[in-house]
Amino acid sequence: MNNLFQIGKTLIHKFLQSGPLQKDRVKHLGERQLLSLDDFCSQFYPGEDLPRERILDVLKDLSEALEIPAGKLRPSDRFLVELAPLKNTWGSVDDTDFSLILLTERLQKRHGVRIDMKTVKTIDDYIRAACSSPSNAR
Hints:
Elements: H1 2-17, H2 21-28, H3 37-44, H4 52-66, H5 96-111, H6 123-130
Helix pairs in contact: 4-5, 4-6
């Protein structure tokens, strides 16, 4: 039964990804500079006591889930503001929440962390939650 649930979630996620939401989200970010992953870490997390590899893994995963290039994301980006689709685009379907739920489940299993989406508002909140404890397994 659990496998059937996972297959259903994946199919719904793929269906929702097929629309033009990604293009609208990227437009919403304006002419923001595209940073390399190394530049992202050195500019926003210099000297932080967070595992650099995990920051990069989480950033790549967020990029994939949100369908936004990782170099366009910033720690201050809010999921319900900067990363939300533009209003009046392709119906009102927003797959952000669903994508983040799937990503959160994967990260919690992979790194053995607890990510409370009730308290996560920004990319930085998400990265810090995902880096909150040592990796148990990969």
